[in-house]
Amino acid sequence: MSVRNINNFNPILRKRDFRFLTDILRIGYFYLYNIIMKEVFKSVKDFPNYEISNLGNIKSLGNSKWRKEKIMKSSVWNKGYKMLILCKNGKEKAMQVHRLIATAFIPNPLNKPQVNHIDGNKINNSVSNLEWVTARENTQHAFRLGLMVVPKGESVYCAKLNSKQVLEIRQLYKTGEYTQNKLGEMYSVVRQCIGDITTRKTWKHI
After folding, report:
1. How many angstroms separate the Cα of 39 from the Cα of each of 26, 51, 56?
2. CB 72 within 8 A of CB 60
3. Which contacts (CB < 8 Å, 24+ apart) does range 165-170 have?
4. Strands 58-60 and 47-53, how do they pair?
5. Residue 124 to residue 78: CA distance in whole angstroms
6. Helices and strands in the chain: count of H runs, count of E runs
7. How far apart are CA 206 and CA 171, in angstroms?
8. Quick check: 130 and 117 in contact, CB under 8 A?
9. Reduced to 3 DSSP states, what percent helix, strand and coil does the chain have, rounded to the nearest 5?
10. Does 206 or 141 have the greater pLDDT score?
11. How many CB atoms lie within 10 A of CB 59?
């Protein structure tokens, strides 16, 4: 890349590309980690009869000849996360596997409230694929991986117009026979809405 091209390089795109590259490197680290890392179990917080591993497995501890130690099977519940039922003092509680693993293995000095899956796979609960994040960081990561998309046009929950009406408004305004106020009355929206449509500040995708 020439010096001229470097000077013209968009810093916003550079920042976005850097974040994407960082995500790719972290995903690569996860696969390498799983190849060379030995499985380690730790006690589950608040549930002394269970242990959880850095590779995402949960073990029920045996306490007699009738109840032997075994690896538990988790199920995919709401929103695609793995969950299982843990029991303490005769009471059962549904727990998210990824949160149990993060709590046991990943320090959280900033007390961030959510656990993010780095590769975007909600059932990949290896500790190398998890991180504590804020709600905003979690959302930004989802957009970068394409797991979330910005709603457009009539898919926006509060949209008052559809694509056909927007195209009609632009065509009528181009004729010069209709003012923005008049079009607003015709389509039951404020004049500013018509102005944004005709100047393509909104509905840019059509």
Report:
1. 19, 12, 9
2. yes
3. 166/197, 166/203, 166/206, 167/206, 169/194, 169/197, 169/198, 170/197, 170/198
4. antiparallel
5. 16
6. 7, 9
7. 13
8. yes
9. 40, 20, 40
10. 141
11. 16
Q: What is the mean pLDDT of the chain?
A: 81
Mean pLDDT for the stretch of residues 121-130? 92
Q: Answer positive or negative: Cα dihedral of 54, 60, 62, 68.
A: negative
In the block, tokens 């990949």 appear at 124
Residue labelled with tokens 């320090």? 107
Residue 86, SS3 per DSSP: strand
What strands lie across the sheet with 41-44, from one edge to the other? Answer: 41-44, 47-53, 58-60, 70-71
- At a CB cut-off of 8 Å and minimum separation 6, what does 141 contact? 23, 116, 118, 133
> Percent of the chain scored above 90 by pLDDT?
35
55-94: pLDDT as tens digits: 889 999 877 667 788 889 888 987 889 999 999 888 999 9
pLDDT band at 152 (very low <50, low <70, confident <90, very high): low
Q: Which of 141, 101, 144 is nearest to 124 (CA)?
A: 101
